[in-house]
Design goal:
heterodimer, A: 266 residues, alpha/beta, TIM Barrel, 11 helices, globular, B: 217 residues, Rossmann fold, 8-stranded mixed beta sheet, 3-stranded mixed beta sheet, 5 helices, 24% helix
C-alpha cells in the first residue's frame, strides 16, 4: 500500500536553510545538504528545497546544493524557486533533483508546466500553490469558502481562485500539487484541512499539505481530513520539536500506512 | 569479494534520466559507474544499467539517436548483466501503451497503464511483495518500501520472470529477472537503505558472473 509521505522542507536563502513566520523574520537553521542527509537518515520520505528568495531577487537555483545532496541522501529531491524554463529545469534535474516545483513561474506562464511535462514527464512537475482564505460573505457558510492564489512568497495577490487553479495546472501537466496555506504557514496552528480537501477531492494527482504543522497530530489530520497524500513541514523538524519518527509513529497509530525505519539505520 | 578491481558499470545516458543519483548510488555500494552516452563508452565494462523516467517514445528515439539501442540489445542477448530501472525496465519489453513505437523487444510483453490507480502518476513509497526469493533481494524483508514514480508498468507474457509485485489500485509487476537481465519498476537509487541494498546485490551478482568460473565452458 502506498505510504503517506513525511517531507521535511528546507527553505533556502543564499545557500543556507532559513525559517521565518509567513516568510518574514528569517533565522539561519544550517547547511542544506547536511540537514537533508540527516533527515534522510531519520526516515524522511523525500526532501524539498525551496529557494524562497529567488522570485524577487531573480537568482538562479541551487545547483551546487542539489549536487552535494544527491551524493549523500538517497531519497527523492524536489527543488522549487527560480526555475523559469525547460532548460533551467533540465539543469536542476541533471544536478540530481527528481522534481521541480513551480509557483510564481506557473502563474506568470502556465504553458511552462506543459512544456516541462512534455519534456520530462508530469511526474517531475510539481505545482506549488500558495493560497490565502478570502473573507466569507455575510450569511455564507463554510462550504462556500474560497481561497486566493498568492505569489512571490505571499507578497503578491493574484485574481486566481485556488481550487480552480489547482484543477487547471493538473490539466496543464502538473503531476503533483504542493498546497501551502499562507494563513497558517509558520504559525503552528495546524493545516488548513478545508483548503486541502477542497483541492484533493477534485484532482487525481497527489497533494502535499504544507503550512502550519505544530505536532504529529496535525500530520494525521492533514491526511485524514485534508485527504493529503503527503505532509510537508519545516521548523518543527529543524528545531527538533518533533522527529520524523515521532510523526510517523503518530500516523501509524492512527492507521495510516507509513514507511518506518529501524532506529539504528542500516 | 575476491576481485581486486571494482565492478565497472556503464549507466546509459540517453537524456531521460537523473544520472547523478544512480551513479552516486552505485558508487556508494562500491561499484565504479561510467556514464555512457555513446556505444564506445560501454567498452570493457562488467554490466549495464538502463535508468530513465519519462515517456517511452522519445526515450527509444534518443537511445537510437545515440547509437545505444543495438549495442544494448546485443549485450543482453549475449547474456551479460544488465539492470533496467523504471522506464529502463519498460523499454526491455516489446512495446508500450505510452507510444506506438516498438521498444527493445528483449522481454515478451508490453508496458501498460496502471489500472484503477487512485492517484496518477503513482508517486511515493510502496511495498514490494515477493513472488519468489531471488539474490537481487537478499537481506531485504518481504513487503519493504521502495520509491516509485511512474504511470505505466510492465505486463510480461512469461509470468515466471516476475520477482515481485506492488499494489496501487491493482497489483502490478514491480521487479523481474530473466537470466542476467534484471528490471525494477521502483528507483533503488532513491529508496534509501533498502534501495542501496538492491544495488549492492546487483553488484554482487555481476561480480559472480564476471569472476572466472572454473568448470564452466
Amino acid at each position: 500500500m502506498l505510504a503517506r509521505r513525511v517531507i521535511p522542507c528546507l527553505d533556502v536563502d543564499k545557500g543556507r536553510v532559513v525559517k521565518g513566520t509567513k516568510f518574514l523574520n528569517l533565522t539561519d537553521e544550517g547547511d542544506p545538504a547536511e540537514l537533508a542527509e540527516r533527515y534522510a537518515r531519520e526516515g524522511a520520505d523525500e526532501i524539498v528545497f525551496l529557494d524562497i528568495t529567488a522570485a524577487h531577487e531573480r537568482r538562479g537555483t541551487m545547483l551546487d546544493i542539489v549536487r552535494r545532496t544527491a551524493s549523500r541522501a538517497f531519497v527523492p529531491l524536489t527543488v522549487g524557486g527560480g526555475v523559469r524554463s525547460v532548460d533551467e529545469m533540465r539543469d536542476v534535474l541533471r544536478a540530481g533533483a527528481d522534481k521541480v516545483s513551480f509557483n510564481t513561474a506557473a502563474v506568470a506562464e502556465p504553458a511552462l508546466l506543459t512544456a516541462c511535462a512534455d519534456r520530462f514527464g508530469s511526474q517531475a512537475v510539481v505545482c506549488a500553490i500558495d493560497a490565502r482564505r478570502l473573507p466569507l460573505a455575510d450569511g455564507a457558510d463554510s462550504a462556500e469558502r474560497r481561497w486566493e492564489v498568492v505569489t512571490h512568497g505571499g507578497r503578491r495577490p493574484t485574481d486566481l481562485e485556488a481550487v480552480a487553479w489547482a484543477m487547471r495546472v493538473v490539466e496543464l501537466g502538473a503531476g503533483e500539487l504542493l498546497v501551502t496555506s499562507m494563513d497558517r504557514d509558520g504559525t503552528h496552528s495546524g493545516f488548513d484541512t478545508e483548503l486541502l480537501a477542497a483541492i484533493a477531492t477534485r484532482v487525481r494527482v497527489p497533494v502535499i499539505a504544507s503550512g502550519g504543522a505544530a505536532g504529529p497530530a496535525d500530520f494525521v489530520t492533514a491526511v485524514r481530513d485534508g485527504k493529503a497524500d503527503a505532509v510537508l513541514a519545516a521548523s518543527i523538524f529543524h528545531r527538533r520539536t518533533h522527529s520524523i519518527a515521532d510523526v510517523k509513529a503518530a500516523m501509524a497509530a492512527a492507521g495510516l500506512p507509513v514507511r518506518r525505519i529501524e532506529e539504528s539505520g542500516a | 569479494m575476491t576481485r581486486r578491481t571494482p565492478i565497472r558499470i556503464a549507466v546509459l545516458d540517453y537524456g531521460a534520466a537523473n544520472m547523478v543519483s544512480i551513479t552516486q548510488a552505485l558508487t556508494a555500494v562500491g561499484a565504479e559507474p561510467i556514464v555512457a552516452a555513446d556505444p564506445e563508452a560501454m567498452a570493457g565494462v562488467d554490466a549495464l544499467v538502463v535508468p530513465g523516467v519519462g515517456a517511452a517514445g522519445p526515450a527509444m528515439d534518443h537511445l537510437r539517436d545515440r547509437g545505444l539501442a543495438d549495442p544494448l540489445r546485443e549485450w543482453v542477448r549475449a547474456g551479460k548483466p544488465c539492470l533496467g530501472i523504471c522506464l529502463g525496465l519498460q523499454l526491455f519489453f516489446d512495446a508500450s501503451d505510452e507510444g506506438s513505437a516498438p521498444t527493445l523487444g528483449l522481454l515478451a510483453g508490453r508496458s501498460v497503464a496502471l489500472v484503477d490507480a487512485p492517484t496518477l502518476p503513482h508517486i511515493g513509497w510502496n511495498s514490494v511483495i515477493f513472488d519468489r526469493a531471488h539474490p537481487l533481494f537478499d537481506g531485504i524483508p518481504d513487503g519493504s518500501y521502495f520509491y516509485f514514480v511512474h504511470s505505466f508498468a510492465p505486463a510480461p507474457k512469461d509470468q515466471s520472470i516476475v520477482l515481485a509485485r506492488t499494489t496501487h489500485g491493482r497489483p502490478f509487476v514491480s521487479a523481474v529477472a530473466q537470466g542476467s537481465l534484471y528490471g525494477l519498476q521502483f528507483h533503488p537509487e532513491k529508496s534509501s537503505d533498502a534501495g542501496l541494498r538492491v544495488l549492492a546485490n546487483f553488484v554482487t551478482l555481476v561480480s559472480a558472473s564476471a569472476a572466472p568460473a572454473p568448470g564452466v565452458a
